[in-house]
Amino acid sequence: MTTLIDVHTHLDAPHFKNDLHKVVENAVKNNVTIMVSNGTNPESNQRVLKLAGKYPEIKPALGIHPEDYLVSLGLMEQPPLPVQPFDAGEELKTIEKLIKIEKNGVVAIGEIGLDNYWVKGQLDVQLKLFHQLLDLAKRVQKPVIVHSRAAEQPCLDAIYSSNVKASKVILHCFSGSKAVVKQGADAGYSFSIPTNVVRASSFQDIVKNVELNQLFTETDAPFLGPFKNERNEPANIVHSIKKIAEIKGFTEHEVADNILLNWKKMMA
Q1: Over 102-133, what HEC string results?
Q2: 165-213: pLDDT as tens digits
Q3: Element (H, E) at 190
C-alpha cells in the first residue's frame, strides 16, 4: 500500500501523553507514515518540534491558532486546555527563525486562520495576525494549513488577497457552503478531509465536488474521528481512503497514490 498521509493532527495534545509511541506504531502498521502535527501557540510549537525530533514519521507545522490568539489577548475564555499568555509578534519572529533551521524539517505554517464560532465579532483582530502569517508563509515558501470555522468566506478572501500561491494552500476541515467550496476549488486551493467523512455528509459532498488532485486526508486527532466517542488517531486515515474511494469510484490504491502525489507537489 502507498504511503498514507495525515496532513493535520495534534499529536502534542495531552490525549496522547501516555501512549504516543503506540499511536505512532499503530499508524505505521496502517501505512500512515507522514503525520503533520500542527502547533497552535508558542508552547505547542515547541512540543511539536520535540515530537518530530523523536519520531521521523511526525512532521512539524508551526502556527498560531486564532482561538489561542484570542485567549492570549483576553478576548476569549480559557479553553479546556489552558493557553499561557504570549506575544504573537515575538512568536512570528520565532517561527520564522525556526523554519530557517533546516534540521527542524518544518513542512508548513499551521494551524492558522480565522474562527467566528466560539467568539463572534473579533474577525478584524484575527485578520491582522492571519495576514501576517500568510506573509510569513510567502517569505519562507511554505504551505499554509488553514482553520476557517464559521469564517470560510473571510478566510478565502484573505488568502486570495495575500497572493499566497494557490498550490500552497490546504483548507483544513472546511465547512463552507457548496458555493464557497466551489470558490475555493476554482481558486486552486486544496481541501483536507477529516476521518469523520465516513459519517458526515458535508465532507462527503466536498469529496464529490472537488477533484482528487485537490484533496488531502487528515484526522485532526484527537478530534473528528470516524467513530463517535472514540479518540481519533492517525491510523484511522485508512477509513478516509476507503470512503473517498467509494465516493469517487476509484480503488483505495488509486486514491492513496493521488494523495501522495498531491503531497509531493505541495512540498516541492
Answers
A1: HHHCCCEEEEEECCCCCCCCCHHHHHHHHHHH
A2: 999 999 999 999 999 999 999 999 999 999 999 999 999 999 999 999 9
A3: strand 190-193
Residue 57's region, left for phi above 0, alpha for psi from -120 to 50, else beta, is alpha
For the chain, the domain total comes to 1
- pLDDT in the model for residue 195: 98
Q: Is 186 helix (H, G, I), strand (E, B) or coil?
A: helix
Angle at the Cα of 124 from the Cα atoms of 121 and 125, rounded to 5 degrees? 95
- Closest CA relative to residue 62, chosen from 88, 96, 113: 96
The boundaries of the domain holding residue 257 are: 4-267
Q: What is the CATH number of the domain that holds 85?
A: 3.20.20.140
Phi, psi for 204 (deg, rounded to 5):
-65, -40
183: CB partners within 8 A, 6+ apart: 156
Cis peptide before 218 (omega within 30 of 0): no
Q: Where are the alpha helices (H) located in the chain, listed in sequence order?
A: 20-29, 42-54, 66-72, 88-100, 123-140, 152-162, 178-186, 201-209, 237-248, 252-267
Q: Is the pLDDT of residue 35 over 80?
A: yes
**Could you tell me the three cell numbers for 84?**
499561557
Encoded amino acid at 105, one letter? G
Task: Judge whether 225 and 214 are in contact, CB under 8 Å.
Answer: no
Sheet of 32-38, strands arranged across: 4-9, 32-38, 58-62, 108-113, 144-147, 169-172, 190-193, 215-217
